[in-house]
Structures are given as C-alpha cells and as structure tokens.
Write a structure and sequence with these properties.
mainly alpha, 71 residues, 4 helices
Length: 71
C-alpha cells in the first residue's frame, strides 16, 4: 500500500464516488474503506510484500462484491 500509485488509486476511487453524487465526506469514507479492502484482497492473492498499485485496481470488483454481501 505504500508503493507508487497507491494514492492515485485511492484518489480515483474517491473521485468516482464524488461523481456518483456522494458527499465529500461519504465519498472519502467509502473510498478509504474500499481501497483498504481491495488492498487486503490483493495481499491475500499476491502476497503483502510484492503488492503494487495495479494489484489493488485488479481486485476492485472483488472488493465491491464483498462489500455488497453486507449491505
């Protein structure tokens, strides 16, 4: 999560939430949660030490599906 591009992924997630009409606060909260969840999923699949930003983006659909189970 502390690699080049990870913050860009987070920014993109938050911007996407804002463009869908969420308030800045809610977009930030949801964006940070989804980013962290995607990071956890990517770490499960690829390993924590080799994780890069594109791995987080790859598993974003998995993060959304996992979140949807609890809504």
């Amino acid at each position: 999560m502390a690699t080049a591009g990870s913050v860009d992924v987070l920014t993109g997630i938050i911007a996407s939430m804002l463009s869908q009409g969420l308030t800045a606060l809610n977009a930030s909260i949801l964006g940070v949660f989804l980013h962290g969840l995607a990071g956890d999923i990517a770490a499960e699949k690829k390993g924590m030490h080799s994780l890069i930003a594109s791995d987080i983006m790859e598993v974003m659909p998995d993060a959304f599906f996992r979140l949807a189970k609890y809504i």
